[in-house]
Each structure stands twice: as C-alpha cells, then as structure tokens.
Protein: THIF-type NAD/FAD binding fold domain-containing protein
Organism: Coprinopsis marcescibilis
Amino acid sequence: MSATPNDTDTKSNGNAATLTEEEASRYDRQMRLWGIEAQQRMRNATILVIRLKGIATEAIKNMVLAGIGKLIILDGEDVSEEDLGAGFFFRDEDVGKKRLDAAKSRIESLNPLVTVETVSRDLPADSPDFESLIQNVDLVCATDEARDTLILINNLCRKHRKPFYSGGTYGIFGYIFSDLLDHEYLAPDRSAPKEPKSIKTTAKYAPLQVALEHKWSGLTRRQTKEVNPGLTFSILALWQFQSRHNSELPTKIEDATELEAIANALVSQAGVNKQALPNIPRTFVESLSTTARHEFSPVCAILGGMLGQDILKALGGREPPIANFFVFDGTSGSGTVCRMNMP
C-alpha cells in the first residue's frame, strides 16, 4: 500500500498543523526541547523507509516515538534467523514470514498516533511504482542498499525535490549520508555573542553521485586525519566492490586484497594528503572482508539512533543536520563527519 497525493495534501494543509490535545500531552516534554512548530512539522511529515534491517529498526523506533505523521516502509524480504539479532521487531516464530507482516503491529504499538503503512513486495528502484511512492512522501531514507541503487534512489529524490538519507552497517563499521537539497535551519548568530539568538541559515547539499567525486587535496595533514579517511575510503571501496560483484558483499579474508587495491586507487584519485594516509590500514579492509555481511546490535543501535535523530533534526529545522557523510568506527566507538562536495 502506498501513499496517495491526498494523504500528503491533508497532512500539509493548515488544519492538520494544529496538534490535538492528545498529541500535545504525549509530546509535551520534547516540545519543550525543540518547540511546537518543529513538532508540527514532524507530525505533518510522511517518511519512506526502504528495507527493515537493524539500522532501520532503531531509526524507525526513534521517529515513531517522536511523533512523525506517517511512516511507509518498503521491504519485500522474509525474516531470517540472522534478522533476530539486531531486529527487535522480530521473534523466533517470525522466521519465514514477510518482515513487514511480522513487524507492523509492533511498530504501531510504539505510538498509536502515527500511521504505519507497509509495502511487502519487491519494488525495483527503476520502476514507475517506486517513483510514484517517492513523489507522495516528504522524505526518503534508504538503508543497507548498494551504492548503485542508492545513487538511483537519490537521483529520483532530486528529481522530485525530496530530502534523502541513507545509512548502513558493515560489521563493526557503518555510515550515514544525507542530501537535504537546499536546507534551512536555525543556527547561532556568531555576530552578536553577548546577545544569544538564532538566525535562519541555508546549507546547500550535494547528491551522492556528486559527493563521491569530492577531492581531498585542499586539506592539511591534521585536517585529513581528523575525518578518518582510512575508514571512509574503505567503505567507498566496499561500495565499488559491490558494483563489480552484482551488489554482493565480500565474504572472506581473500577479498581484502581486492578491497585494499580499490581503496588505495580511490585515495590516489581523490588527492588525499599522503602524509596523513600513505595507505589504507589493512585492519579496515580485513574486517570489512570478513564481517561486512553481519549485523551487530550495538552498532545498529548507535547508527540507527543517530539516523533517526538526524531525520528529526532535518524535519524540525532547529539544528544543523549531518553535512553530509558520517562514518562510524566500532573499534574506537567514534565517528567523524566529512563535508563532501558541499560549498
């Protein structure tokens, strides 16, 4: 079942902008944090989430509890035993069932005020039905997809002027990417430090296809090391590996040699400071080669939590969201943001 233009129009009209008494009571604490207007924007938003795996599970929990208006989830796969580790919407008896059939009622129980719709079938990103789905939502979040699919979805979002997020985990590593078009938000006014106030600021984002062409040659050694380029280029190499191998992730230690060669070639093409990163650390590519297919609940919780909260930031417009590529290193428990081809 997909959203219709009438659904979106109803959410966007003036009457829908007023919170009900029940909503005001339920969301009282968070409205004190980010304001009534931000809560109204969340309440009027329809969000499409693509694929219900570990990172999406955590992001959905945060968005539903925060009070978005409508959630549409697209996933045609069945629950597997591997899904039980990081997918807390699933139970042992759900193995073999459609993921969305098993999860829908549990998602709805988190917040009965949020409308949850599901599309429990495969819907290729180049199909007319998929494009129609994107046209009738306010924001798209694609999770655990290969690079080529992400570029296709992002380009469709650009065509219809829809903000786009993607996120995924690869063993103990992961990433979040955002393309929010021309995004307005409130930022502190640095020109008047003695009189704290906020001013409206606009950030111009880049689509993924353009972000991947980012050149690092303008950064000093210190600036380069601060954004952890070794992990960033290991993940970008993983995406290229998938492109070469029909979207398949690496499975064995032998794949590390190919990943390492791809990553080092990407580093050279991007003009990364050689003093900061002479070569891709072997530990990154070996870990990705052996664990990329596996989901670890703590990593999904951290990245999914960040993804959900950043989507809420984007909807609320009161804080700067991720701009625009975040990588998480589970070996150190730290993450860094790289501004890729943004002004």
Strands lie at 46-50, 70-74, 115-119, 139-143, 164-170, 173-179, 182-188, 198-204, 325-329, 334-338. The two ends are 39 Å apart (CA to CA). The chain has two domains: 5-185+297-338, 211-291.
